[in-house]
Amino acid sequence: MASVARPLPGYAGVGVGPPGAGLLTWVSTVDHKRIGIMYVATGLVFFAVGGIESLLMRSQLAQPDAQVLSPQVYNQVFTLHGVTMIFFAVMPLLFGLANYLLPLMIGARDVAFPRLNAFSYWILAASGLFLYYSLLSGGAPDVGWYAYAPLTEHPFSPTNAVDFYALALILSGAGTVATSINFVVTVVHHRAPGMSYNRLPVFVWMMLVTSALSLLALPTLTASLIMLLVDRLLSGHFYDPLGGGLPIMWQHLFWIFGHPEVYILALPAFGFISEIVPVFSRKPIFGYSFVVASGIAIGFLSFGVWAHHMFASGMPIIADMAFSASTMAIAIPTGVKIFTWLATAYGGAIRFRTPMLFALGFIAMFLIGGLSGVTLAVVPIDWQVNGSYYLVAHLHYVAVGGVAFAIFAAWYYWFPKMSGRMMSERWGKAHFWLFLIGFNLTFLPMHLLGIEGMPRRVYTYPAFEGWGDLNLLITIGAFIMGLAVVVFVGNVLWSLRFGRPAGDNPWEAWTLEWATSSPPPSYNFASIPTVTSRRPLWDVAHPEAPDWEHEREL
Amino acid sequence: MRRRRLAGFAAALVVLACWPAAALAAPFWPVSGQTLQARSISWLFWLVMAIAGLFLLVVLGTLLYVIVAFRGREGQPDPRPVYGHLRLEMWWAGIPFAILVAVFIFTVREVGVETAIAPDALPITLIGHQWWWEFQYPGAVSANELHVPVGRQVRLQLLSADVVHNFWVPELAGKEQMVPGQTNLWTFTPEQPGRYDGACAEYCGTQHGWMRLTVFADAPADFDRWLAGQGQPVSQQVLSQHQDALRLYTANACGACHAISGVSNGKAAPDLTHLGSRSTIGAGVLQNTPDNLAAWIQDAQQFKPGSYMPKFRLSDADARQLAAFLEDLR
Ligand SMILES: [Cu+2]
What proportions of chain B, in percent to the nearest 5, are helix, strand and coil? Predict the structure, then answer.
C-alpha cells in the first residue's frame, strides 16, 4: 500500500506510557492527556446517570396515568436529566476530548496553563457532585434545565434545590471559562513551527470558536444566576414581578447564554466529523476554508438567534420576525457543513469502520435535527409545536443524533491513541446499529406526539388522548438505546484489557496526534515536529504529491 | 460477509420504516385547523414540511448513494485528492439561501393573518394559576372550561397569577405564554361547534401535567345562554335546599379559597358558582360526577398530588352532601 502514512521519523516518543499509575499520580496530574481522560471518564459516568434518569422518565410515560414516579420525583428527574446531560456529561466529554487532542494536534507539549487546566477539571467534577448532593439535602431541583423565573423564586421553590442548581452551574461555568482561556492561549501561542492558522486541523478551529463562544456566553449565565441567588437569598427583585422585577428578563438572559451553548456543544461535534470523514474516505476535507469560515459564521450568528426560544413569550411581532430571519440564516452555514462532508466522502474509498459509521449516522441524524430546527424558525409553526414533544424530538436529534453520535465517533476514533489498544469492531458495530435503531424509535415518534398536542415535561397524560401506543414505542426505543450504551461500556472495558495493540497510526490518518506513540509519552513529542501542510503525515507518505501544493485551493 | 451486509440493510430499512409506521399508528391531522388561524398555521406547516422533506430525501439519497458507490475495497490505494470547488460551494450556500428567503416571506404573510384582531372581537381574560385556569368574561367568571361562540373572533388577554404558564389548544391556534406582570394577546376565530382539548405548555411546577383545559365552541345562541347563566348568582332556592352543606362549606373554610357568588369570594381557587355546569373537575383530572366530586373534596391530593386544594377530614356523608350542593350550582 503506497498510501500508508508513516509517523514522522523521530517524532514518536520512545513508547512509554504515562509514568506511574497510582491514584495519587492521577489526582495530582497536570498532564493535559490525563486531565482529558479524567474529564472523559467523569463525563461517561454522568452520561450513565443521565441515561438512567431518562429510562426512569420513559418508564413513567410508557402508558397513560402510570404511577411509577410521583409528579414531584418525575419533575426532579427530568430537571436532573437535562442539567446532567448538558453540563456534566456532554460538556466534559467534549472538553475532555479536546483537552487530550488539542495540544497533540497542534504539536504542543501541553496546554498553556496546565495547573489552570487541573483546576478546570476538579471544579467541574466538584460542581457535578454538588448538584447531586441536593438529593441528600431535601430534594433535587425541579424547575427544568432552563428554570424559568419566577418558578425559581423563593415563594414557588422554597427548598434549597434551586440554590444547588444555581451554584452548581456557576461553579462549572468557572471551569469552562478557565478551559476556554486555556484553549485559546494554547492555540495562539503553542502551535508547532509551520502550523499556521491556515493549516490548523478543522477540529482545532472549531474548538477555538467554541472557546470564544464560551468566554462570551457563560458569564451571562453566571450573572443571571447570581441575580437569581440575590432574589432567593437576599430578597432581591430581579425576576419578581411583585417587586417590580421582570420574569421575562430571565428568559432573555438565559437564552443569550443558552443558544450559544447549543453551538458550544455542536461545533466540537462538527470538528470531530470534519476529522473523521476525510480519514475514512481517504480524501482531504472538501473546501477547508468554507468549513472553517462556516464554523466562524455560526459562532457569530449564534449570538443573534436567542429569542427564537421565545416566540410565544409575547415579544413584538417585529422581534419575532427578526429572530426568525436570523435563525434561518444560521441554517445556511450549517447546511454548508453537511454538503462539505458529503463532498468529502464523494469519490472516496470509504472504510466502514465504527468511527465512520457513527460519523455517517451523525450526518443523517443531524440533518433531520437541523431541518426540524428550520421548521421551528417559522414563527407560526413554532407557535404550534414549541413546548411540545416535537421540540423534545428536535433537540434530541441535535443533541443525541448530532452531538452524541459525534462523541461516539470520536471515541472509537481516538480510543486507540489514548489507550494504545483498538476497540472491538464487532461490538462497535453492534453498538452503532442498536443505538441508531433505538434512537430513531425513541425520537421520531415524538415529532408526532408533539404535533398531536402532547406538551413536554408532563409527568403523565390522559388515556383519552390516545398517546399511549406511541409512548410505549418510545419507551421501548429508549431501552434499546440503553442496551446499546451497555454494549458500548462493555466494549470499552473489554478493549482496555484485551484490545489489539493499536500502533501509532492505526487509521492511517494525517494529523499530528498520529505521529507520536499510542498512548503518547507525557511530553507528547520527542522533538517538536515542523508542519508543512494541513495534513503533515500525508506529506510524509506522499513526498511526490504533498498537500501544501494545494493550500490555496478552497 | 454478504449475510452481514444484508443484516445491515435490513436494519437500515427498519430505521427508515419507523417514520411512516409511526405516522400510521396515530391519527395525524391535528393541525388541520378548526379556525382561520389554525388553518393558516397548518398550511404553512405542510408547505415547510414538504420543502424540508424534499431536502431531506435529496440529501439522504446522496448520502446513501455515496455509501454504496464509494465503498472502499481492501488494499485500494487512496483516491486522487480533491481539495474543494469554489463554484460548487457557492451554489450549495446559495440554493438553501433562496429557499429560506421564500419560506421567510410566507412566514411574514401568515403571521399577519394569524395575529390580526378585529375591533369587534369578544374580549376574554385568561389567568393562569398553579394548576388551573381562570376565565373572566364581560359579566361572568369561570374556570378550566372555556366557552366561545362559533363565528366570532375572540381576543384573549393572557395573564398569570403566579409563574409562567402557556395557553395551548392545538386545534384552535398556536400557543402563547402567560407571563406574570405582563399582558399577552392571543386570538382565534372558532368555526366548528365542538369540544377541543388543550393544556398548559410551559412547565409550571408540580402539577403542570394536569393543568389541562377544555374549550367548548358553542353556537351563538347557546353561547349567549351559557354566558347569561354564568352571570347569575346562586338562587335562593338552591341555598335553602342545601343549608347543611353550606354549614360544612363555612366550617371547613372552603370560602377562604373559593368563590361562590353571594356566599364567599376567595380568590385562590376556581370559582364554584357554576361548578355543576362543568364536565370535569381539577383542570381535567376527573369527570364531574357526584361520586368523583365527593372523593375529590375529601382528598384531592389522591388525584392531583401537590395541588393547592388541601385534603379534608370529612365523613363520606358530609362529602356527599357538599358534592350534592356543588352539583346543583348550574
Ligand atoms: Cu401551567
Answer: 45, 20, 35
CB A292 within 8 A of CB A270: no
CA atoms of A223 and A246, how far apart (whole Å): 15
B178 in any annotated domain: no
Q: pTM for the full model?
A: 0.93
Give average pLDDT by consecutive 10-residue segment, chain B, 330 residues. Answer: 60 60 47 78 89 93 95 89 88 93 94 90 96 94 96 96 95 93 94 93 96 96 95 91 94 95 93 95 95 96 96 95 94
> Residue A234: which domain range?
32-540
In the numeric block, which cell numbers belong to residue B129? 394559576
State the residue range of the domain holding B240.
236-327
Contact B93 A452 (CB under 8 A): no
The answer as to whether A20 is a domain residue is: no
Nearest to A33 by CA among A116, A103, A90: A103
Position A551 confidence tier, pLDDT thresholds 50, 70, 90: confident
DSSP codes of every residue in A313-378: TT--HHHHHHHHHHHHHHHHHHHHHHHHHHHHHTTS-B---HHHHHHHHHHHHHHHHHHHHHHHHS
| B287 occurs within a structural domain | yes
Percent of chain B with pLDDT over 70: 90
B167 neighbors B126 (Cβ within 8 angstroms):
yes
Number of separate domains in chain A:
1
How many helices (H) and strands (E) chain B has is answered by: 10, 14
Q: What b/e string do you get for A501-538 counting C-beta neighbours within 10 Å, with b at 16 or more?
A: ebebbbbbbbbbbbbbbbbbbbebbeebbebbbbbbbb
- A129 pLDDT band (50/70/90 cuts)? very high
Alpha carbons A57 and A79: distance in angstroms, whole number: 11
Interface test with A, best of B111, B113, B308 (most A CBs within 10 A): B111
Tell me which residue of A425, A283, A412 sits closest to A349, measured CA to CA. Answer: A283
Between A136-140, A145-149, A204-208, the lowest mean confidence (pLDDT) is in: A136-140
Q: Least CA distance to B308: which residue of chain A?
A: A156
Give the closest-approach CA distance of A453 to chain B in angstroms. Answer: 6
Provide the pLDDT for residue B14: 64
State the smallest CA–CA distance between residue A432 and chain B in angstroms.
Answer: 11
* Any domain includes A442: yes
CA-wise closest residue to B269 among B278, B279, B256, B280 = B256
B-chain CB neighbours of A288 within 8 Å are 83-84
Residue among A378, A387, A441 minimizing CB distance to B168: A387
Residues that place a CB less than 5 A from ion ligand 1: B 165, 200, 204, 211
Q: Does B41 touch chain A (CB under 8 A)?
A: yes
Tracing cell 341555598 back to the chain, one arrives at: B239
CA of B162 to the centre of ligand 1 (A): 9
The CATH number of the domain holding residue B280 is 2.60.40.420
Closest approach of B127 to chain A, Cα-based (Å): 15
C-alpha cell at A11: 517524532
Does residue A11 form part of some domain?
A: no
Strands B184-188 and B154-160: antiparallel
Span from the CA of A16 to the centroid of ligand 1 (angstroms):
60
Count up the domains in chain B and report the number. 1
Chain A touched by B168 (CB under 8 Å)? yes
pLDDT at B211: 97
Query: What is the pLDDT, as a whole number, of residue B33?
Result: 67
B229 C-alpha to ligand 1 centroid (Å): 28
CATH code, domain carrying A300: 1.20.210.10
- Interface check B73 vs A, CB under 8 A: yes
Nearest CA among A235, A271, A229, A265 for reference residue A250: A229
> Touching check for B128 and chain A: CB below 8 Å?
no
Instruction: Report the share of chain A in percent with pLDDT over 90.
Output: 88
